[in-house]
Amino acid sequence: MKKRIVVLGGGESGAGAAVLAKVKGMDVFLTDMGKIAPKYKQLLAQYDIEWEEGHPHTESRVLAADEIIKSPGVPGNVPILVKAQQKSIPVISEIEFAGRYTDAKMVCITGSNGKTTTTLLTYHILQKAGLNVGLAGNVGKSLALQVATESHDVYVIELSSFQLDNMYDFKANVAVILNITPDHLDRYDYKMENYVAAKFRIMQNQTSDDAFIYWHDDPVVTAQLKHVTSEARMLPFSALDEEDCAACLDESGLMKFNVGGRHWEMPRAQLSLKGLHNVYNSMAAGISATFLNVNDEVIRRALADFEAVEHRLEYVRTVGGVTYINDSKATNVNATWYALESMTTPVVLILGGKDKGNDYSEIEDFVKEKVKAIVCLGVDNSKLHKFFDGKVPNITDARSMPEAVAKCHAYAQKGDTVLLSPCCASFDLFKNMEDRGCQFKDCVRKLDD
């Protein structure tokens, strides 16, 4: 009798998992309470996979499953999953499922901030080295779909805490934690320790043949490591010149690497990506590639010619001497801290959106020092006003991106920077973070010189 698989969620992750299950000869049913995008319907039809959309999950079908594959956007406490757990039906992630059917090396990257850049940077290095490498997780194509339809020797995978939640036997050959700051606490009972524990699932099942790469200066990461036992090789990185680090930065701005006795160096000034946060991202990617025996000259070239990630400190254009920067990916306070840290001119800052329990005190000093005006872009800006009123010369509200950009244009003078770095999720006024960033860029491009 065929194994019965039910997939919850019909996006990139769910559709990919459904295809892999079908290719492996299983009985597959996919269900999504929202609308499934046409491209995923076509994919499901191509593989003759049954699906439903736009209404509550058909309980009898879901609870008849031998195993449920849950998409990362589906919270673990929805009623249908509670009932499934009561029936002892295993609930796993797409990544867990895909890992069963490939022997490829897995380079897995997580962190509250910087994981997309680091994932793409690592992928870029491995491509330059001529490796047969796939890109998966939060970026690229679904890992399950690639395992079903392609063949790679290495996968570089960006993992959110949501994806890590339902991973049990999966193993990362290289696991990276860049940093951990409060984020998504609404999915973790507003308990930071639950969120931290989810992130640390990335190093479960690692052996002495594997590597764990982490930011040595992150107090949350280093505190949690005291409660973790692992056979993996510990490869920390730091902006300080630390002897025991696999990568560090000396006072002259030289990045120094030492991975298993392999020493090499690269001046920070040669990195294509600017800002201290990108030094960390480059160190993590450089350590990963060195551990995988990539030549250091290849790594240097790749770190020097990598092109920036869309929506992460992305230069849009200069209008009337004012620079416009799109940092829509900054959906938490720490990401905006890094954006402000890299600013060297007076800033007109766009903040706001769906607040996830933010503590704005982390950016208060930078705001007082660098920000001349704040435009609050959201349905409810009361929390922003409560914290920032009186701390900047100008603060105002906008209910749409055209209004926000127009107000920024009025505040900004030659030599200033207009920075969209919202601190918040986008779902109050926009479809998603990408929609917010693209609307910003469209509005900026329409400004008169």
UniProtKB/TrEMBL annotation:
<comment type="pathway">
    <text>Cell wall biogenesis; peptidoglycan biosynthesis.</text>
</comment>
<dbReference type="GO" id="GO:0051301">
    <property type="term" value="P:cell division"/>
</dbReference>
<dbReference type="GO" id="GO:0005524">
    <property type="term" value="F:ATP binding"/>
</dbReference>
<feature type="domain" description="Mur ligase central">
    <location>
        <begin position="109"/>
        <end position="287"/>
    </location>
</feature>
<feature type="binding site">
    <location>
        <begin position="111"/>
        <end position="117"/>
    </location>
    <ligand>
        <name>ATP</name>
    </ligand>
</feature>
<dbReference type="InterPro" id="IPR005762">
    <property type="entry name" value="MurD"/>
</dbReference>
<dbReference type="Pfam" id="PF08245">
    <property type="entry name" value="Mur_ligase_M"/>
</dbReference>
<dbReference type="InterPro" id="IPR036565">
    <property type="entry name" value="Mur-like_cat_sf"/>
</dbReference>
<keyword id="KW-0132">Cell division</keyword>
<dbReference type="InterPro" id="IPR004101">
    <property type="entry name" value="Mur_ligase_C"/>
</dbReference>
<keyword id="KW-0573">Peptidoglycan synthesis</keyword>
<keyword id="KW-0067">ATP-binding</keyword>
<comment type="similarity">
    <text>Belongs to the MurCDEF family.</text>
</comment>
<dbReference type="GO" id="GO:0005737">
    <property type="term" value="C:cytoplasm"/>
</dbReference>
<keyword id="KW-0133">Cell shape</keyword>
<dbReference type="InterPro" id="IPR036615">
    <property type="entry name" value="Mur_ligase_C_dom_sf"/>
</dbReference>
<keyword id="KW-0436">Ligase</keyword>
<protein>
    <recommendedName>
        <fullName>UDP-N-acetylmuramoylalanine--D-glutamate ligase</fullName>
        <ecNumber>6.3.2.9</ecNumber>
    </recommendedName>
</protein>
<keyword id="KW-0547">Nucleotide-binding</keyword>
<feature type="domain" description="Mur ligase C-terminal">
    <location>
        <begin position="311"/>
        <end position="423"/>
    </location>
</feature>
<dbReference type="Pfam" id="PF02875">
    <property type="entry name" value="Mur_ligase_C"/>
</dbReference>
<dbReference type="GO" id="GO:0071555">
    <property type="term" value="P:cell wall organization"/>
</dbReference>
<dbReference type="Pfam" id="PF21799">
    <property type="entry name" value="MurD-like_N"/>
</dbReference>
<keyword id="KW-0961">Cell wall biogenesis/degradation</keyword>
<dbReference type="GO" id="GO:0008764">
    <property type="term" value="F:UDP-N-acetylmuramoylalanine-D-glutamate ligase activity"/>
</dbReference>
<dbReference type="GO" id="GO:0008360">
    <property type="term" value="P:regulation of cell shape"/>
</dbReference>
<dbReference type="InterPro" id="IPR013221">
    <property type="entry name" value="Mur_ligase_cen"/>
</dbReference>
<keyword id="KW-0131">Cell cycle</keyword>
<keyword id="KW-0963">Cytoplasm</keyword>
<dbReference type="GO" id="GO:0009252">
    <property type="term" value="P:peptidoglycan biosynthetic process"/>
</dbReference>
<comment type="function">
    <text>Cell wall formation. Catalyzes the addition of glutamate to the nucleotide precursor UDP-N-acetylmuramoyl-L-alanine (UMA).</text>
</comment>
